[in-house]
Amino acid sequence: MSELISILMPVKNASNFLTDCLHSIKVQSYSHWELIAVNDHSTDNSLQLLEKFAADEQRIKPIDNKGNGIIDALKTAYEYASGNYIHRMDADDIMVKDKLLELKSLLDKNGKGCVSTGMVKYFSEGKLNNGFLKYEKWLNSLCEQNSHWSEIYKECVIASPNWLIHRDDLENCGAFNKQQYPEDYDLVFRFYKHNMKVVAINKVLHLWRDHAERSSRNLPQYKDNDFFDIKWQYYEEVVRDKSRPLMIWGAGRKGKKMAKLLKKNKVKFEWVSNNPNKHGREIYEKILRSFRRILQKDNPQIIIAVGQVGAKNEITKFLNQNNMYAIKDFTFFC
Question: Pick from 26, 192, 169, 14: which is nearest to 100 by CA?
């Protein structure tokens, strides 16, 4: 079973979309797969649909969640997975026909120590939110430029249902053993922490469905779209050099949120802004200073919590002109 791809798929009240999803898996051009579909206490007819498909397709294996929620469902699926290749799928989405073939070919070409991915396309029966379209464009640009890890602290750089990895590598990264949400972002951060190489193909492999009942829209675990807690956790573990002074750039909503988090964690930092109207003001017992204060510090590390696209470009230009570079010296958290 060395070439078997195990597809892990949590299923919760997905009956409106499950038939399309399962059909897209059945017709994959790469046929050596198994689908471990874990029913997470659905109250609709999702389980009946899974059982109906499984009756005609032995590669589909419905299982009940041993716990509750997405992480427990993934743990349960992984426990029953037999393949040496592991892939995650969402029950409301659709696979492009060559998805598994393309992901596996890319992974085989590059060997272990890699995670393969590709482009995505959002779709919806209604009007797509502009935020989703921006996220799609950004994710796909990372595939084009192969620059995933340089952007890891902005948002999740690999779509949760659009990666393939060797089982051994997933094990080395802790698999699904960590009970931390958002679980997809946490896992990608662990890929990053363990120096996994992202290899991407410039083709759309996954059709990502937006709808009102989607988990990321409704579950409280995904309510905070900034995810500063998890970003700071991995920044501290992977990037932070405590011998260097830490600075926060940004005094808007996100900058204040980041400063509040660091104060809560009793982390020493200086706070700067490019808004002259805020220079000298005291917020959270911190005096805001001009961004030029950075030039007076010896080898600082800078977390930038500024959301505006134009401002990001200007900040990057300023720091590059002063011989400071992304991740090593400054990191955008949004």
Answer: 26
pLDDT in tens, 251-301: 999 999 999 999 999 999 999 999 999 999 999 999 999 999 999 999 999
Residues in the chain: 334
Q: Which fold does the domain 228-332 belong to in CATH?
A: Rossmann fold (3.40.50)
User: What angle in degrees, to the nearest 10, is found between the helix axes of 69-80 and 183-193?
Assistant: 60
Sign of CA dihedral 48, 53, 56, 59: negative
Coil, helix or strand for 54? helix
Query: In degrees rounded to 5, what are phi and psi of residue 4?
Result: -75, 135
Q: Please give the C-alpha separations between residue 331 and each of 129, 252, 306, in angstroms, as whole numbers.
A: 27, 17, 11
Comparing C-alpha atoms, which of 115, 112, 111 is closest to residue 87? 115
Instruction: Residues 5-222: name the CATH superfamily.
Output: Spore Coat Polysaccharide Biosynthesis Protein SpsA; Chain A (3.90.550.10)
Confidence category of residue 222, pLDDT binned at 50, 70, 90: very low
Boundaries of every domain in the chain: 5-222, 228-332
**Beta strand ranges found along the chain (DSSP E):** 5-11, 33-39, 60-64, 85-88, 94-95, 114-123, 163-166, 197-209, 246-249, 270-273, 282-283, 286-287, 289-290, 301-304, 330-332
The alpha-carbon radius of gyration of the chain (Å, integer) is 22
8 Å CB contact between 254 and 307: yes
- Strand 197-209 versus strand 94-95 pairing type: antiparallel
Torsion of CA 39, 42, 46, 47, to 10 degrees: 50
Q: Are 89 and 159 contacting, i.e. CB atoms less than 8 angstroms apart?
A: no
A 10 A CB-CB count for 327 gives 16
